[in-house]
Design brief:
Blueprint (H helix, E strand, L loop, with lengths): L1 E4 L14 H12 L6 E2 L7 H15 L3 E5 L2 H5 L4 H17 L3 E5 L9 H18 L3 E2 L4 H4 L17 H17 L1
Parallel strand pairs: 1-2, 1-3, 3-4, 4-5
Helix pairs in contact: 1-7, 2-4, 4-5
Length: 180
């Protein structure tokens, strides 16, 4: 499974071995010895950046699954929702054309971007998921983000203590995807 995400999956300001992707892979390999989680995440990544990098990642790794965890940086920069929708849709199509199953993660942004933009942003993910009939995973840091003890001083990124919790949660979601 290829994870194409941003700093939330790239282990921002941590050793990548401490990040949820590496920790989840260790857990998943216990039950599925040949399983590999490929972390194609980059801090600061937008949907346009992920789209630009995706063809090379697909060629290099040939994943069975692609999990797209992108859009937060688009939202934080106030990018047009139509552009985000087009980029995520094209990523799904590219991954499917390469023979991979795709899952999309719901992303949330702070409410200070205005009600219309924030609501439109949140509704975009279920709409894309429905349009392409791909699983939609819940925003994985939702509960963690409410606990300042589990967040870095920037209030945006989960800290090292949060990573095992994220790994446990994501492991369960990934196992559910693998059943299908």
């Amino acid at each position: 499974m290829l994870i194409v995400g941003d700093s939330l999956s790239a282990a921002y300001r941590l050793d990548t071995r401490q990040g949820w992707v590496a920790l989840a892979e260790q857990q998943l390999r216990v039950e599925h010895p040949g399983f590999e989680l490929i972390n194609g995440s980059v801090s600061g990544e937008t949907s346009a950046g992920g789209l630009a990098r995706l063809p090379a990642l697909l060629d290099k790794h040939g994943p069975d699954w692609v999990l797209i965890e992108l859009g937060g940086n688009d939202g934080l920069r106030g990018f047009p929702l139509a552009r985000l929708e087009a980029n995520l849709s094209e990523m799904i199509e590219l991954a499917q054309d390469a023979g991979a199953d795709v899952a999309l993660m719901q992303i949330r942004i702070p409410p200070n971007y205005g009600r219309r933009y924030t609501e439109g942003f949140e509704k975009l993910y279920p709409s894309i998921s429905d349009s392409y009939d791909v699983p939609l995973l819940p925003f994985f840091i939702e509960e963690i983000a409410l606990d300042s003890e589990l967040m870095m001083d920037d209030g945006i990124h989960p800290n090292a203590e949060a990573q095992p919790l994220l790994a446990d949660d994501m492991k369960d979601h990934i196992l559910e995807l693998l059943k299908h």
